[in-house]
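Q: Sequence in, structure out?
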Amino acid sequence: MLMTLFAAVSCARPTYAAEDLPRPAVDLPAGKPGETRTAVFAGGCFWCTEAVFEQLDGVSDVVSGYAGGTKETADYEKVSDGKTDHAESIRITYDPSKITYGQLLRVFFATHDPTTKDRQGPDWGRQYRSAIFFANEDERRVAEAYVKQLDEAKLFGGPIVTTLEPLTQFYEAEKYHQDFVTLNPSHGYVQQWAVPKVEKVRKNFKDQLKNK
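A: Exactly. Output:
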């Protein structure tokens, strides 16, 4: 049902276009088959970002949650107030022999606007900031290099404001947020904001999809 909906919705070409983004010049080395790693990104509403990355070959799991703040404030009601340090985030579990950290970053920057501070589409507030939560210095180095690469290429309408923040802890969001797009394909927000992002990935990253 969801795939039918995706096929029926067209997506206007935004100012940031996947086909224009270069592959990262700096990346982490590929892993051994069967190895798993995780990456934590924040790019607006976690419903949308979760749906984007669930499509990719090599990604085994995507969980919506919160990163940047404390355990005491890691719940939707508090985070939605915009007064915590949390961002709506996703934790991606992936096989680095099939998809690299840099390739995940390329999809991340292609499917949200990294030039708007604390805003994505209709969503405003610190909890919707564009952020990369790095788990180690290697991830920080790759992310920093790619941000510099994209800024120098001047492919966006302004400078990238994505923050690079050390990952202290990732907290899973409430159960009803998990797989929200898949479970609620007719939801108004999903149709207007999530579906175009998913369709964009299906169009521009065909060689990286699970169902090629």
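The chain is about 30% helix and 20% strand.
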